[in-house]
Amino acid sequence: MLRYLGIDAQESEDLKFADRPLRLQALSTLEVFNATGFTDLPRPVRLMFERRYLRVQVLSDKSDLDVRFELFRRLNVGAVALTPQEIRGCVYRGPFNTMVADLSRDKNFRDTVKLQQQNQSNATFEEIVLKFFAYLNSADAYDGKVTQFLNSYMGERAADTDLADDRELFTKVVAHLAKVTDGKPFLRSRTNITPVNQLEAVLVGIVLQRQFGVW
To answer: What is the 3-state secondary structure (H, E, C) of 190-210?
Structure first.
């Protein structure tokens, strides 16, 4: 069975080709068409597809992840552009990506991080989690190019399965921060939005404090 990754500007689906017709799956908007083959679609819908050109960029499952990211970035020119972290979530799939998404929903983390409205649903929370691990474990590899740095780190760890210590560490760090802020958002004086750059430094600093026995 050949396996391809289908990518568009809004969502990414796994398309599986075998000795049977291709069927739609995991649709989140037009759910009524899930498990539907092309010949099962209403005639007007079939005609719409038959009369349109479909541009396809083919990458096998052996394609370099950085190449996939760059292709996705260049194709990402729709009405709603994805953030780099949203693209990473599609390209660098695996246990590590799943862990990052899980930790981004940690209650203590969400209580202490207050983002602007437009950043609350564009994977900014996930990127903060990713930066925590990247800066903590690979700071020496950082050369000022944040996107490439995070891509490389996430690519290196995409298939990691030994993640229990990472989960525990992040959970303890944000729990400690929530205790310090008394469960309130981490803010600068006279502001109501979390300064993300400072937060990233503080999260790593908490780990260093812990290593030196400060808490």
So the answer is: CCCCCCHHHHHHHHHHHHHHH
For 97, the token pair is: 């990506």
Sign of CA dihedral 60, 102, 155, 90: positive
Measured distance CA(65)–CA(46) in Å, rounded: 33
Q: What DSSP string describes 33-59?
A: GTT-BGGGS-HHHHHHHHTS-------
* Count of alpha carbons within 13 angstroms of residue 84, beta-carbon side: 15
Instruction: Enumerate the β-bridge partners of residue 37.
Output: 23
Cα 210 to Cα 15: distance, rounded to the nearest angstrom? 45
Mean pLDDT over the full length of the chain: 85
- Tell me if residue 212 falls in helix, strand or coil: coil
- The mean per-residue pLDDT over the stretch 162-182 comes to 97
